[in-house]
C-alpha cells in the first residue's frame, strides 16, 4: 500500500463547507483537492439523502468544473469511472464504519485503504483507467475486481 500524507479536516463544519461549496459551485478551485472529493462524497452519502451520488454527482462535478473555468472533455475535467469507483468505495467504507461524528468519519476515510491516489490502479491498468472510454462512462476493472468486502475502516 502506498504511503500518503493525510490532510485531515478540522471540524464537521469544514467538511460541510466543502460539500455545500461543491453543490453551490462556490468552493474555490484550489480547495477541490483529492481529500475534498472524498469528503464531499462522504458528506453527500451521510447527510443528503435527497442526493443520489451515482446519478447526481456527475452533473454536479461537471457544472462545478465549468463554474471554475475548467472544461470536461476527453482529456480533462470530469471522469466517470473514477467518480463511480470512489462512490462505491466510500459507500463500502461507510457501511463498515462505526458511527462517529462527520469529521471523525471523513478523517478515518482519508486514512483508509481507498484514500491513496493510486487506489484505482489496484483495479485498473493506467491505459484502461485513463482511456477516453473510462472518462466518458463506467468501465469495469481490468486488473482486479471490486470486492464488496474489500474496503475497511483500517488506516493505510
Features:
single chain, 156 residues, mainly alpha, 7 helices, 49% helix
Question: Would you give an account of this structure?
Answer:
The protein has seven helices and no strands. The protein has 156 residues and is an all-alpha fold. α1 packs across α2 (34-47) and α2 packs across α4. The chain has one domain. The protein is 49% helix and 0% strand.
How would you concisely characterize the structure shown here?
Helices cover 49% and strands 0% of the residues. It has helices at residues 12-24, 34-47, 53-67, 80-96, 102-110, 126-129, 132-136. Helix 1 crosses helix 5.
What is the count of β-strands? 0
**Fraction of residues in helix:** 40-55%
Question: How much strand?
Answer: under 5%
The count of domains is 1
User: What distance separates the N and C termini?
Assistant: 7 Å
Write the layout of secondary structure elements.
Layout: H1 12-24, H2 34-47, H3 53-67, H4 80-96, H5 102-110, H6 126-129, H7 132-136
Amino acid at each position: 500500500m502506498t504511503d500518503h500524507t493525510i490532510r485531515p479536516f478540522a471540524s464537521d463544519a469544514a467538511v460541510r463547507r466543502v460539500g455545500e461549496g461543491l453543490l453551490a459551485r462556490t468552493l474555490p478551485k484550489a480547495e477541490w483537492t483529492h481529500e475534498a472529493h472524498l469528503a464531499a462524497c462522504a458528506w453527500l452519502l451521510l447527510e443528503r439523502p435527497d442526493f443520489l451520488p451515482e446519478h447526481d454527482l456527475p452533473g454536479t462535478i461537471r457544472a462545478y468544473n465549468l463554474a471554475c473555468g475548467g472544461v470536461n472533455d476527453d482529456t480533462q475535467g470530469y471522469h466517470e469511472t473514477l467518480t463511480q469507483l470512489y462512490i462505491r468505495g466510500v459507500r463500502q467504507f461507510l457501511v463498515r464504519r462505526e458511527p462517529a461524528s462527520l469529521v471523525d468519519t471523513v478523517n478515518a476515510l482519508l486514512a483508509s485503504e481507498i484514500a491513496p491516489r493510486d487506489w484505482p490502479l489496484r483495479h485498473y491498468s493506467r491505459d484502461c483507467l485513463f482511456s477516453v472510454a473510462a472518462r466518458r462512462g463506467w468501465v469495469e476493472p481490468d486488473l482486479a475486481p471490486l470486492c464488496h468486502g474489500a474496503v475497511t475502516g483500517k488506516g493505510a
